[in-house]
Description:
By secondary structure, the chain is an alpha/beta fold. Among the domains are: 1-50; 341-507, no CATH class; 508-645, Orthogonal Bundle (Arc Repressor Mutant, subunit A), CATH 1.10.10.10; 661-742, Arc Repressor Mutant, subunit A, CATH 1.10.10. Helices cover 40% and strands 12% of the residues. It has 31 helices and 19 strands. The strands form 4 sheets. It has a 13-stranded mixed sheet. It starts with 7 loop residues before the first helix and ends with a helix. The model is unreliable at 407-420, 505-531 and 617-663 (pLDDT under 50).
Amino acid sequence: MPLDQLPEELLLQVALYLPDSATPKHLKNLCLTSSALRPIAQEALHTTARLAISCGCHPKVNAVAKILRTLLDRPDLASKVKTLRFRAVRKGVEKVYVEHGFEFLDFRARCISKLDELGYRSAHLWRRSIDNSIESAFGGLLLALLPNLTDLDFWIKDHQRGPPSSECISGLWGGTSPPDAILHGWRNISHLVTGDTSLLKCGIEFDKLTSLDLRTISIGTVLRLNGPGSLQGAENLIDLNLTVSIQFADRPLVEKAEIEFSELLEALACRALKNLKILFINDGYHIGDDLTTELNTGYFLDQLRCFEKTLEYLSITLEAADDDGELEWLMDMCQHPTTSLKDFTVLKSLVIPQPFIFTARSSNWSPEGSCQPRNLPPNLEQLELLYPHEDVEEWVEGFLDVNFYATSSDAPTHSSDAQRRTSTFKKLILICRDDAGISASYFTEGVDKIWWTLSNNNSIETEAYDQLRETRENLACLYEDENLEREDTADEDHEIDEDDEMDDGWEDDDDDDDFNAGLLSSVIGPISPFLEDQTSLLRHLRALPKPEGHAPSEICASLRMSFERVTEAASVLQQDGNIRFEGNFPHSHTYHFVGESEQLLREDRVYRLSEALKRGREPRGSSKADADGWETDESMPELETYDSEPFADAVRDTTNIASREHSGVVVTPTAVLRCLRDMTDPSEGVYQWEISRLLGIDDDNADEVGSALRQLILDGHVHNTRFEDKVYFCNENAELRAEDVE
């Protein structure tokens, strides 16, 4: 079908898909294509009218006048406009418009004629504003001609380069009350952006308003309120954006004025608010002033507690300053952070400057005077921390604290609490700038291990976002990459050292390598080049014991295996008696470790023997291997023995630790931690089953060791990696330190 034969409704839908912007050139070009397409393009062009906004430095003809002129020519288009954005100034503009070639006198005459049609005679203040060529008054006429607006974004300014006016109604319509077309014609507006609260005080019916953005909230704004519920139309708000004077955090100042920021929120009376954004602007303090002012951030956060049962998203940001150092200076003024946000029970996402929850370290700093991770909202999923300092690396250790996983400060810690809290908080974003806090490079170069630990142990991913360069880096991934690079460099250096040794006369290394390979193969047979699914699954269950078991979906994510592969491997292991199932259906099964398979035992022997050979040459006989409990091949030929001091140390260390514990001991986290600490080289790590053997624990009680390890990992005294099944000693707990003192 030819294009010109398509129904107009279909052509309009096609036109609406063309990109829109401040200068929608595609729609404008379509207007010029043909007389048949022009009405379609004009309707699409005017449905969304986001007018170009001037910076104010070089005044010119406002797009408000141009679209108003079009609607006077084509009144049928007025009903098509659904979205409108414009800015206008409360100044006479006749001279500027004439200088730019705009036919202003004819345009003004047509506007006056339209006012006559609407019943506004020469004595009316709106008519006088038009006579005086006040630009904002033409904006008022434009608004009066648009009956079907749903999305309105406008400011009236008192000066070309000034902020939004605190009183826009007289700028638009001359007096203190809007025309009837406005009072009863804005029932369908759902999103409103304006300067002040003026439009909420004059009786306009906002029946469907769910999103409000107020751009100038000052102390004067609150002083002019008439109490709770005095701002009409905000009862159904879901989203609220406020541009707020930083002076509201100056507690002595607002108390002297006998007001509180919460009075504004009470006047809005929006009891179902879910999303709140607050942008602080510095309109009262200047860098270099001799001030002792402190901004009480905890006090300001207390003003928001009327929303603590409904708010799901909270963002508090600071306006970027033009002067170098001003943002950092303003951050330094922020003191007295809140100590708890736990009452915000449904909050899922929080964007907040660091000083609002904890300040940079000082001589009088204490954890009790800040909001620790355990006191964050209980259902928080993401935290964006603005302009952090280096002490954030210490603060985030609170996520590893066992108390973080409790549902309340005095609640006992249960595994279900831990699972719920672990599955809730998932992401921390550090938003950095060079001129405030510390730069992003501090976190992305020489990455601290804490970020990798949070990712590995708690599934909390941390990103560093450079606000100026708009770059984003995952810190756990950077840590892994840096370690891989260090390992590659170390391997290269080791290869160079080995080459040097060969040059110095170590020609018998080839014989030793042949011996090592022969020893491994003759003792435990051939080594598989890859792990089978069953063995990978079994190793995972053994390394991470959980009383409630592991769900298949969790294992799929950890091992990066499909559900079919996991269930097939689990079925084989269950038949062989290596694991057991709990649950009635495959998707609800949980897997529990029972015992090692032959293949897993063989791999353990390979690993342990190879580790011993790395520390020192294995004695060419079987006595020390037998003493350490390793299986040997009876047909292995007798070889000449030699002693290896490192290897002997390892065996002696194992024997000494085992001798200190006996079968039947009570397995406590401290006993397990002591075992890990007292290894000759704790940095090498140890498997859970090795700990059981060293403590003299039989297989029936192995789960007690697993539970103790899990507690130690949560407390940050032990850590494990995602790449292997070992656990590693980190630091002593209080009980172990007390025992040492005694």
